[in-house]
C-alpha cells in the first residue's frame, strides 16, 4: 500500500524537490501551496514525469484551508504517513537590527511556528491512522540556542535575525514537545537542517546565499520522512549531513 505525504510550501525550491523525491520513492504526495497557479503548475510538472503528486490549496496561516486540505486527504486516502512542515519565511532581510519590530516577529511566527502547529494538529487524526507516521519540521542552525550563544565560533550568533532565529528556536521547542507527546502513538517527530541552500527564501539576504543545491538540501528531510529511526532529533549537522546532529 502506497504511503501518503503532505509537504507544505511546495510549489518551488526546496519544498518542490522534497515533494518530487518522496513521490519518486513511491509515495502519493499532496503538494501544498498558497499560490494556486504555481501549485497546480508544480504538481502538473511532477505529474507529467509519472509521479503521483496532487495539488492542494494550503496557506498554513489560514485555518480553513488547513482543515480543507486535511479533509481532502482523508476523503481520498484515509490517512497520512508523512508530514513535512516546509513552509517558512524571513521577514527582516537587510534591516538594521534596531529596525526589527514586533510585527516582523509576529509575521515570522505566524508562518514558521503557528502554521506548523496548525497543520500538525489538524493532521494528527490522519497521522494516528498510520502504522508509523513521521513529521519533519524544517529548521535551521539560526534557531540553535547553543550556536546563538557562541559568537566566537559560529556565524549564527552574528546574523541578528531576531524574527527568524527566534521563530526557529520556538519551532525546535515545538518539535521536542510533539516528539515526546506522540512517542507512545509511534509518531516520530524530528527537525531537519537542509544546510544553506540557494532558494528564494534567502534571495534578499545580504549574506552569502549558500552553497547547497535544492537536491542536496532535500537529502536530510527526505531521509527523515522516509525512515526516521528515532524521534526528537535535530538532524543535519552544519553541512546537511543526516548522520550529524545540530545542537539545540
Molecular structure report:
There is one protein chain. With 248 residues, this protein is of the alpha/beta class. It has a single domain (4-245), classed as Rossmann fold, CATH 3.40.50. Helices cover 42% and strands 15% of the residues. Strands 3-2-1-4-5-6-7-8 form an eight-stranded mixed beta sheet, with helices on both faces. It is globular, with a radius of gyration of 17 Å. The mean pLDDT is 92.
Keywords:
248 residues, alpha/beta, Rossmann fold, 8-stranded mixed β-sheet, 8 helices, 8 strands, 15% strand, globular
Task: Describe the structure in brief.
With 248 residues, the protein is an alpha/beta fold. It is built from 8 helices and 8 strands; from the N terminus they run βαβαβαβαβααβααββ.
What order do the helices and strands come in, and which of them pair?
Layout: E1 4-7, H1 13-24, E2 28-33, H2 36-48, E3 53-57, H3 63-77, E4 82-85, H4 102-128, E5 134-138, H5 145-148, H6 162-181, E6 188-192, H7 214-217, H8 219-227, E7 234-236, E8 241-245
Helix pairs in contact: 3-4, 4-6
